[in-house]
Amino acid sequence: MSPRAYEQRLRAESAAATRERIIEALFDRIRAEPARPVSMDELAKAADVARSTIYTVFGSRAGLFDALALDLFDRGGYQRLLDATRLPDPRESMRKGITAGVDIYASDPDVFRALHSMERLDADALGGAIGRIERQRTAGMAGLALRLKRAGELRDGMGAKRAAHFIWIAASFEAFDLLYSGRGLPPDQVAEILVEGAERAVCR
């Protein structure tokens, strides 16, 4: 390896380590004080970087929280959720998609709960990250409902638009958290109940 290539690799590794340190500091901050808005100055101090470094790495507050959300989903097994959306059988896609979503939420429920609460109180504080994820989720539910309709899986009188509403509820963090935190159920039972509820609501 040439000296220049070696230097470039060291810089890339250092940048990745800095990025990871900032993300971990943000996770810790949200878990510790979920009700208080995140200060960039406090975050920089916790991550042992300059405030300007956060913006250099992530571009903006929105970029920072987008990165946090992506990291949160990846840790929870987002690939399995993507795999579920690509299954040819839309009913199986719904079952496995809801189950994968439960596993993602269960991977760090405290952070998910804090982010959803912060989104309701002050969406700007998160740079709109959760709102963007929810819009993507809404579009995904609409597509799934349409696939169910085309496959003849929807029960009589159930249109694709209405079915999308039911699936959206079943696949939401709020539905997960009501059963997980409110009823104290383990993730596998939560998934079973939400899948059964969605199927009974929309399918033949």
Description:
- By secondary structure, this protein is mainly α.
- It folds into 2 domains: 3-59, Arc Repressor Mutant, subunit A (Orthogonal Bundle); 72-202, Orthogonal Bundle (Tetracycline Repressor, domain 2).
- 78% of the residues lie in helices and 0% in strands.
- It is built from 11 helices and no strands.
- The protein has helices spanning 3-32, 40-47, 51-58, 61-76, 78-85, 90-107, 109-121, 129-150, 160-170, 173-182, 187-202.
- Helix 1 (3-32) crosses helix 2 and helix 9 packs antiparallel against helix 11 (187-202).
- The mean pLDDT is 90.
In short:
Helices cover 78% and strands 0% of the residues.
Quick one: overall form? elongated
**Percent in strands:** under 5%
| Multimeric state | single chain
CATH structural class of the largest domain: Mainly Alpha
Distance between the termini: 62 Å
Structural class: mainly alpha
Count of spatially separate domains? 2
Q: Would you give the CATH topology of the largest domain?
A: Tetracycline Repressor, domain 2
Largest sheet: none
Query: Low-confidence spans: pLDDT under 50, at least 5 residues?
Result: none
Radius of gyration: 20 Å
With helices defined by DSSP (H or I, 4 residues minimum), what is the helix count? 11
